[in-house]
Design goal:
Residues 6-136 form the Pyridoxamine 5'-phosphate oxidase N-terminal domain. Keywords: Oxidoreductase. This is Pyridoxamine 5'-phosphate oxidase. With 155 residues, the protein is of the alpha+beta class. The chain has a single domain, classed as Electron Transport, Fmn-binding Protein, Chain A (Pnp Oxidase, Chain A, Roll). Helix content is 23%, strand content 40%. It has helices at 3-15, 53-60, 93-106, and strands spanning 18-24, 30-36, 38-40, 43-49, 63-69, 79-89, 125-139, 147-151. Strands 1, 2, 3, 4, 5, 6, 7 and 8 form an eight-stranded antiparallel beta sheet that branches. A hairpin with a 2-residue loop joins strand 3 and strand 4 (43-49). The chain is globular.
């Protein structure tokens, strides 16, 4: 991947804080949900409940598809990312704390003392590391429906 495309991907990741992620239910039906995310380079992280349907789905099949984008009034200004990836639970306590710190940094306008709930600890939530295998970089400014495809690893 060339450096300009890498920078574009990282800029899009920096500009957003939520993504839609699709997991596979044990019955084969896809399930899409919106989650907050943080990233460290091209690795994404998200949290969910310990017994959530997402956590159950990922225990069964760790393949995910996701999108990161936003609405715009200008059709030719549509940009975004879609990815095929694998989501693995974070079991290393140091990595889990790093993710929770990144999450707090992602919301600098949020005063933690004004939350009605306590921030979760690694024991309270399931934290997933999302490692992309394919990234599609959507950029309509280069033409209607234009996307650059980046293949990072085996599917």
């Amino acid at each position: 991947m060339d450096e300009a495309l890498r920078k574009k991907i990282l800029n899009l990741l920096d500009e957003h804080r939520i993504m839609s992620i699709a997991t596979l239910r044990p019955d084969g039906w896809p399930q899409v949900t919106t989650v907050g995310y943080v990233h460290d380079d091209l690795t994404l992280y998200f949290l969910c409940g310990l017994d959530s349907q997402k956590a159950q789905n990922l225990a069964h099949d760790n393949r995910v598809s996701l999108t990161i984008d936003h609405d715009t009034a200008d059709l030719m200004a549509i940009t975004g990312l879609s990815m095929a990836a694998h989501a693995e639970p974070v079991v290393d306590r140091a990595e889990a704390h790093k993710v929770l710190d990144l999450l707090a940094q992602a919301y600098p306008e949020q005063d933690p003392s004004k939350l009605d709930i306590e921030m979760p600890s690694p024991e309270d939530v399931r934290i997933f590391r999302v490692t992309p295998t394919v990234i599609s970089v959507l950029d309509y400014s280069k033409g209607f429906g234009h996307a650059d495809l980046v293949v990072l690893g085996a599917e």
